[in-house]
Amino acid sequence: MNVCSFVGRFSSGFLIAPLGLWNLIVASSGCCAIIMFCMTAAHNLAGVMSIGATFGLFSGICEHRYTLSVNPKADAFVDIALVAPMMASLASDRSEIGIRMGVGFTLAGRWLTLKRPRLYSQDIVYSKVNPAAVALVSRCWHDSEENAPDPGSLDPILRPLKRGEVGVTWLSTGEHEILPETDFVLSDRLFQLGEFCKASINDVASAVVTNVNMRIRVAHAVSGEELPGWHTLDEFAPRPADVGEYLVYNDWVGQTFDETLVEAAGHLIRVPELSTRLVVGDKGRHILPPPQGNLSGILSYIMGQNRPSEGDTVVAVRHTVYAIAWFGISQKLDPREAEKRERPKKFWYGEDVAKLTVIRGVAERQLHVGERVFFRKFDSARPHTRHGRDQDPGGIFVCSAFKIIESETIIDLLWQDGTRDQRKATDVIPYLNPDDLDCWPGNHVLYKGEDGNKRVAVVQSVDAKERIAKVLFLDTQKIELVPLLDIDPHGGTTGEITSELGVQLGDFVFICDDNGFTDSRVPVLGEVEPWVREVPLTEGEPLGWRKELTELGAEVTSGHDSRLGNVRLPRPDDNSLNWIGEVTALNLDGTVEVTYPNTKKDTFNLKQLNKLQDGVTQLQEDMWNNGSEMGGSDEDMEDVWEDIPDTEGVPNGDWEWYDDQEPPNGVMDDNEVVEDGADAEMGSAASDVAEEDMSSTVVDETAQSLPILKDKEPVSSDDVSPSAGPSSEPDAWTRFEILPEAPHDHAFYDSAVEPRSKAFFSRLNREYRALQANLPDTIIVRTYEDRSDLLRSLIIGPDNTPYADCPFVVDWVLDAEFPQKPPRAHFHSWTRSNGRVNPNLYEEGKICLSILGTWQGDKSESWTPRSSSLLQVLVSIQGLVLVKEPWFCEPAYEKLRGTEEGKVNSRLYSEKAYVLSRGFVLRAFELSLEDITPAIRDFYIRRGNLKKVIDDARALIQSSSAPEGDGEDAHRADGEDAHRSDGRDAHRADGEEPAVPRLTGGGIIALTATLNKLQALLDRSTATP
């Protein structure tokens, strides 16, 4: 164990105490403190080091509580955070107050930090005021928004949390409460196999949990008498099968989606219930259900029999009926034999339960504080209680159930750099928001090189700070260093997931001879039965299968049936289930270790595995994918679009009306009537459906009513870089233009052409006028005479964002229901399947934005036929999506803005976005989209923006390649390095902090490869003929 000493000298005196991980309480009335520490050889120090530092403290008498912890993953400096009630105003917006001291020596990779508590969901905590009061943290301020309660709930317990608050469930009473997290002390932290963690929030490096071990302390579930000492899990009998666990029967695997024995007034009563809400030891009036509606039940209640009382106590809980959804069959069976195996029945009870076998992974074998357990063998010397009377049907019942009152979890960790260690779970923090590029040793990844070829590799180790990975290429069996930006840990899956790249720790898999997939992809099997998705309740009453389950439970318990079977557990000598198992290790050669239900292990190639997708995951994805469509009202759209709405950055006034000029070619008049009052027909250039030239539909007498702003002055020659060279092209950067034909490479070119009404064309005319009048200089739009339902936009990334000067192309289609519903968009993602360039811009082309109805955000931001417009949509993409810190575009992360965790993740994401978007410039030239290529050449070649992109990127590489300043923490990536070692300030000339202040080594490698191609492109474009 690490041994250190801590000396705190205040004006009131000295205090000396030993430390490992400890709390120090000091009463101080002075304004100065000197903190000194030393470490022994246990920290591999060649001597005793001491540090002195002076801190300005507030005057006044108060109590300060500090928690000192040793972090072996950090570098050579000391961060000390002072957290006290009197400093709350300073700490309100920070998770800790840090004072960095430059010191002239190295602490062998160790550092010390004093910081306030940081709790996470599922943490086990106890009250500082009453240590016997144990609670489970059920909600945290930093939890994902998708798990947040309804903000409109009338229950005050479900109100949104403030920063520093946690929602807890008291394990003794089950009551919920919201309290400051500083009211609690962390007792234990729960991790599962395959979950990720960090040593601290500021760390870039992370680890994956490879094993979990626990020891527990217990007390009798009814009497509360404690049993001294710690106990390991193998001393206790396995739990019965519970909701969500896997069960096997006749080579089928399924998932469970109970009878409760209650002592009331000395009698034992069986109570059916749909879930495991009751546990042994529960007491109170809430346990017994109301009397049944028959005369016998009512009379029994009136006479005082089975009437609820405060002394009602749960003394046993047992499942009597299981509802099981069967969704997978052994892949080792011969196909003809598999066809004969009918899907097993839905409900299981009575003696049939004994035909089922439960299979568990590492996570399901864990126990947690508050759970009830039984020792494998009854020992009368241990605490136990007796219940009931001899004349009761069941006689005397001896309760030997214990409840877990304390736990200690030890986890085995595999760090990204390949090192392994073992730690207490409370010494690390959950890594809740892994970066898209994060990977760990043993992971299969997809490498995408400069030539565009994709190769499968296995990660050997990762330098998380420099974002470089050492990988084994399976095709050549050679180990090489590659930047993380060139690999995809997820395999680039889009749409419905039918296969995944590799497997992860904790996955359940079917064993097979050959899954039929190549390139290390693994099929995903398992489809839940339709009845699982039935509506659960109506007016508080269960429906469908839940109603059946409730009725069966009542029938079984009322019959006092003693022939209740027990679900079987796999025996160590039984190999009949060796067709399914849990992934427990990922080997560096690409093979996978699988642990069978009988705990035996075997090693397989990925081609021998199929991944089991459980029902819970499928239901979660259903809820996530079935978001409600957001659209406008159904009111008539004649004359509802009165004005262009005020939007930030979009002018709504200062119109300049036409005098004697014609409107732009192709703009329709509002009063144009479709011939014979019928719907207008549109078609593609190849279909000959649209024979009218839209330009002929302009009515001269209304031309003077078309408002339009004057075009900007053309760019002067002084604004064009000399390196751009001569150009024979005219100024092609026209913000709005109607072209004769839609390009064949338009994403919606092959979409069905539907009749359009007069109202559609009237609205379209107004949209065109708004676009021509108000488009910013950095957005252009192209529309088409032969396909008035199609548009294409080119948006240039705003300055001082990771997207600065880069092109973003979006294709649009206006369905027949427009403007009742928003336009549909397709984003041209040019990342070469290297992930999203922005959280709201999907690789498959989806744009996640409230106004497009693709994100269920604030209703005030959704599309409304009356006030929304194409112009508003385009400006929203440029101003709300292509932002300086795109990581926070993810709704769940917005609340983390300003936190240390948010800074770390945001900086890494911005680097990725910056490098990928430089590649967009290259792809814009390579793809040569038919209608916007002239504008692309105009912007990048004639106006010199290609040279600007290259020069800016090279300047960033140069500054990033310089050594970081002295005392800079090698494990921090929060973007706070405001000064470079060469003395140049990291801020821009305008005083703003740059969107991407520094690149990692991996970022430099990936960006350099793109810049070399852009330079070659520039050289060819500017060469003298």
TrEMBL record:
Domain called UBC core: residue spans: 759-922
Q: Which CDD domains match?
A: UBCc_UBE2O
Supply one GO molecular-function term. ubiquitin conjugating enzyme activity
Composition bias type Polar residues, residue spans: 695-705
Q: Which residues cross the membrane?
A: 20-38, 45-61
Superkingdom assignment? Eukaryota
InterPro entries cross-referenced by the UniProt entry: UBC, UBE2O-like_SH3-B, UBQ-conjugating_enzyme/RWD
Q: Where is this region: Disordered?
A: 682-731, 958-997
| Ranges of compositional bias, category Basic and acidic residues | 968-991
Q: Which UniProt keywords apply?
A: Membrane, Transferase, Transmembrane, Transmembrane helix, Ubl conjugation pathway
Instruction: Spell out the protein name for this chain.
Output: UBC core domain-containing protein
Supply the source organism for this entry: Schizophyllum commune (strain H4-8 / FGSC 9210) (Split gill fungus)
Specify the taxonomic lineage.
Eukaryota, Fungi, Dikarya, Basidiomycota, Agaricomycotina
